[in-house]
């Protein structure tokens, strides 16, 4: 009869399970894959640049700023999350974002080709090459990894621009040492670049002296590009047109 179940052949455990059946959540597993979404190459690069504009830097993992009592004062979201938000709201992209995206894409492609010809590429360059190989649309499933990488490329573009600018500045210096090996020198220098070394927990400073000679040295703190300082140090070596200094003090 409808509404009754024959339990004559069931064990007591089966009957108990049947009595609790309605209390359990129903879990349905779907065999369907999530539908992919496509975004144009132009919009993806523009959104990546927009995220860089919002954060002012590349933020891989979201972070909070805390007050004295542990309260959250502000939250900085991941560039990747901001990028995706712009892709879902493309009307919020600015013309400058589109231009920046096109410039970054063109520059990085040319720079990668140049460094590949000189055999000066690394692991990250291979990931960047995969992003640059996408010519039409980014697919959220097919290009999942590429979409993760592209979020950091606007910052790579900015760093590459600064790197080339530093190279141009150093190329115009007089290719002579500032003193004999072991000599103690006092110099007025203008900082060209300051790069943090995680391996040594110091900053590598590149600078140009007042008589247009290139020097570099390790220092405990970062020094702002274009800032001028009086320094003392010892000449360690001279190589490739630059003098390396040791035991540098400022002031």
What this model shows, in words?
This protein is an alpha+beta fold. The chain has 2 domains: 129 residues, no CATH class; 76 residues, OB fold (Dihydrolipoamide Acetyltransferase, E2P). The protein has 7 helices and 9 strands. A 5-stranded mixed beta barrel has the order 5-6-7-9-8. Strands 1-4 form a two-stranded antiparallel ribbon. It has a two-stranded antiparallel sheet with strand order 2-3. Strand 8 and strand 9 form a beta hairpin. The N and C termini lie far apart (99 Å). The N terminus is likely disordered.
Structural features:
disordered N terminus; OB fold (Dihydrolipoamide Acetyltransferase, E2P); alpha+beta
Helix and strand layout, with pairings?
Elements (H helix, E strand, L loop, with lengths): L11 H8 L18 E3 H15 L7 E4 L5 E5 L2 H10 L6 H23 L5 H10 L4 E3 L4 H7 L2 H19 L12 E14 L4 E8 L4 E6 L8 E12 L2 E9 L1
Parallel strand pairs: 7-9
Antiparallel strand pairs: 1-4, 2-3, 5-6, 5-8, 6-7, 8-9
Helix pairs in contact: 2-3, 2-4, 4-7, 5-6
